[in-house]
Design brief:
CATH superfamily of the largest domain: P-loop containing nucleotide triphosphate hydrolases
Largest sheet: 8 strands, mixed
Radius of gyration: 41 Å
CATH architecture of the largest domain: 3-Layer(aba) Sandwich
Number of domains: 3
Number of helices: 21
Strand content: 15-25%
Structural class: alpha/beta
Strand order of the largest sheet: 5-12-11-6-10-7-9-8
Number of strands: 12
CATH topology of the largest domain: Rossmann fold
Distance between the termini: 43 Å
Amino acid sequence: MAENIVEQQAAGQVGAGAKQENDGMTLSALFGIMRKHIITIIITFLVVLGAVITLTAMSPVEYTTTSQLFATYNDSSDGTANSSEQNSGSSYIMSQIKSYPALTTTQSVLQPVIDDLGLHTTVGQLKGQISVTNPTNTAFVNISVTNGDPAQAADIANAVAKSLSSVVENTLYASGSHSSVKLSIVQPAISPSSPSAPKWKLNILIGIISGLILGVFAALLKDVLAKQIQDDDEISEYIDAPIIGRIPEVDLLNDTKPVVVNEPGSPVAEDFRRIRTNLSFLAPLEDANTNCRLIVVTSTGASEGKTTTSVNIAAALAENGAKVLLIDADLRHPSVAAKLDIDGSAGLTHVLSGQASVKDVVQRYWKPNLHVLPAGPKPPNASTLLNSPIMVELLNNAVERYDYVLIDTAPMVVANDAVIFVRRGGSLIMVCRRDQTLKRDLREISEELTTLDLPASGVIFNCARESKKSLERSNYYYYYSDSNKKRSKKHRFSLK
């Protein structure tokens, strides 16, 4: 475990150096963001795909058919034109045919079609149904018509082809005795058997690709705009400290007893035992310089779970046989007494103001080796009392008598009480809560600690999402506990 913590610290330092060298987003970071916001990606994907399917289903069914014309040179001679005249005629056709797509959509071509077919439409509306192309370096003219009625689409395409041929041969070159260009219908339009629109396969493919792209973009945007810490991986971006524990969001933490006391066989109790082990390696009791561990527990802001974390760590340490003193030094908002359901009317405030001694207000909780010093009533001068010589003397005496002294302090955005205790040799433990700890506050506190040369010893991430690995560990732990219970019952019955 000690090696793990050292590795975490080293990794944090290496990661910080790498971050300085390369500020761009790595592929692993992108996947991390996608995994963190997978629900957002899925919802965005489904919304986009659903919208595409809905719009496709609402689109009118249309049919497209094409008639094809071929342009030839209409020579006025008796058919004995030489090769030079034929080449000249071919060049003339190629120069003229480029203008026929535009000519096809004019009123002179389309109005006769409307009259012959008895269409209830205008030239402009009919123009919107027609697409005319001249394939490059060819004498072909392709007339495509799109309509909701497949038979009518074929009739319009053939009528337009006929009208264009008539205009070219009889009207366009009226100045001469005859037209030099002849248009022949080589492929009449037929009624299509299947619709050309909507294109379901193409639209669904576009919906899938668009949904994925927009989903990833939404995840990135949500991650950038998020003001709160949402994953423990983000913590290293703002503070240089290893994560020594991850606590899931469970109802057991809302009880008035620590989980080690209330449900010692629960996975969350085991999580606090893990924190206990990590704390013991951060600063072992065998250290020649001190006989005590002074642990300062704080958070950036309110409602991040520092008090709950403090009482559970204290209980976990006491469970292991260590002599522990838990001090509620958050005089502005005392909460340890209420959390443990003990009398909080007298406490640290009375000691610091000279109204009582420590032995008068310290209470034993659960085990003989676990002592609690409540805050007492709120004083008007909390900072003055916590900086008083009496407080220094109290800590010095506590260091000599206890293996661990845990101090629950005010959030760092409220006051810098935690800094005062860390200056006196304490180990700073930051509690961060998912969707509660503000990134801005964590960054500012980290900068303050760096300026004061007071690094945080560790971070506990509260309300962490349970990974698949942790769930497997929890299931194993429950299975192990249940099997032990079954064996115990079996032994009891056998004794009888």
